[in-house]
Amino acid sequence: MITALQSWLFPPALTFLSGFTTSSYVNLSQITTAALADDALGVFKISSGTTHPVVTGPNSNESAWEAFYPEGSYNPNGPIRGGFGFYMTGPPSFAEQLSTANEVLTSYSVMFEPDWEWMKGGKLPGQFGGVGDLAYRCSGGRQNDRTQCFDLRLMWRANGAGEVYAYLPLSENNAQVLATVPPMSVENPDYGFSIGRGAWTFRPGAWNVVAERIKLNDPGKNNGILQIWVNGTTVIHVQGLELRNSSQSVFQGMHFQTFFGGSTSAYASPQDQKAWFSDISGAILG
Fold first, then answer.
1. 128 contacts 252 by C-beta, under 8 angstroms
2. Which of 51, 125, 131, 170 is positioned for an S-S bond with 148, CB 3.0–4.6 A?
3. Does 139 have pLDDT greater than 90?
4. Does the structure show a pLDDT above 80 at 61?
């Protein structure tokens, strides 16, 4: 029996060569089950001053990482630390395939508590990659070596509007392609490119299942793909992208980061708040 959650984490239109999930509701022969634990999922480079305890998720019997955003918290380096952040390769068998993959899917479920206050926005996990260590910190307004990395986290904005917050090579082609993604896309000159803002809306007090598919471009060609599903529905599908200009730029895993911000206190959480992340999954598509 195919559960709704399984089809939302692993969209059935795709072909999976291999993969993993922490969900007990997935039954696919190519997908192995992994524990929601740092060592099992290859968690490293954990942001200082934050924790991500494993709890039983609300309205669920599944394990979840709990994120706590204290009142006044914003920015990973702000005076009050909130949320959490780390990089994640996935289980060893998955991690070993990332550097030679050209198409990868990652997915997870996120729940914001019922009385959640969105403010101006905040970050959510997404895929990252690049050339060696230059792949790390492909965010935070980085301008140097932007052709050597890609970072495609998600964001919530005011009233729960969703978007992809992309750091990609600063090419004229990327700017032209991304600017046309509906309902609204914004090129931020000093930070990431906001793609498809409002293409979906996160619901507080409920599990929101997001899946992100990335297909790398062939170096020298603009044929990369970004696709996002939310609760099983495609909400963003962008083709013609340049994610890299060298075959040395490869998938490295997930940038599993969440916090309020933005880099100023205007983004700060107005109260103590919690969110939960469960059903962490990934698959090699090609």
1. yes
2. 131
3. no
4. yes
Q: What angle do CA 53, 56, 59 make, to 5 degrees?
A: 135
* 10 belongs to a structural domain: no
CATH code, domain carrying 193: 2.60.120.200
What integer is the mean pLDDT of 22-43? 97
The model's pLDDT over 8-26, given as tens digits with 9 standing for 90+, comes to: 999 999 999 999 999 999 9
Domain that holds residue 206: 40-284
Residue 20 structure tokens: 């993993």
Contacts of 39 (CB under 8 A, 6+ apart): none
DSSP code per residue over 24-66:
TT---TTEEE--SSHHHHTEESPPTT----EEEPTTSSSEEEE
13 domain residue, yes or no: no
Task: Kindly report, residue by residue over 215-244, the tens digit of the pLDDT.
Answer: 999 999 999 999 999 999 999 999 999 999
Number of domains in the chain: 1
- CA 279/CA 62 separation, integer angstroms: 8
Q: Return the H-helix or E-strand segment holding 252.
A: strand 250-260
> How many CA within 13 A on the CB side of residue 73?
24
